[in-house]
Design a protein that fits this description.
CATH topology: Nuclear Transport Factor 2, Chain: A
Strand order of the largest sheet: 2-1-6-5-4-3
Helix content: 25-40%
Number of helices: 4
Largest sheet: 6 strands, mixed
Order of helices and strands: HEEHEEEEHH
Number of domains: 1
CATH class: Alpha Beta
Number of strands: 6
Distance between the termini: 51 Å
Length: 140
């Protein structure tokens, strides 16, 4: 099993109890960046996931595709969760860079927060959808 296989298995079975294993997959000064967070270090990365479990219900990742090249990989995924009784699915991708020991040193998540989350939320969803329409190319 490669370091990427092990990491993806960990993500697909992630629970609050398995968060203690973060240092088995991330280097001590690893960076994790997504549309909402930019943190460094395994303690901060663990706190980020603790926050995910504290603020969402039944969060889980489904891995879709992967491309590996040397010490880096790109993985596409779905993130499923519930928030205030509504279920959501976010489609995204992660660029991962590994050190010589196979630990993640840089993890960058790419996903469209407006499309995948904001426009689906009550209250702000309508204005976000309107704003997206204003910037979209008009059909001919």
């Amino acid at each position: 099993m490669t370091c990427l296989d092990a990491l993806l298995d960990w993500y697909t079975t992630l629970t609050p109890a398995t968060l203690v294993q973060v240092d088995q997959f991330y280097a001590p000064q690893a960076r994790f960046k997504d549309p909402f967070n930019d943190v460094s270090g395994v303690v901060a990365i663990r706190r980020l996931f603790e926050h995910m479990f504290d603020t969402t219900d039944n969060p889980r990742f489904v891995m879709l595709e992967r491309i590996e090249q040397g010490t880096q990989a790109f993985v596409t995924w779905e993130f499923h969760f519930a928030l205030k009784g509504r279920t959501y699915t976010v489609l995204g991708g992660s660029h991962l860079r590994f050190d010589a020991d196979g630990l993640v040193i840089d993890h960058r998540d790419y996903w469209d927060a407006a499309e995948e989350l904001f426009q689906k939320l009550p209250v702000i969803g309508g204005p976000v959808r309107w704003l997206r329409r204003q910037f979209a190319v008009k059909p001919s």
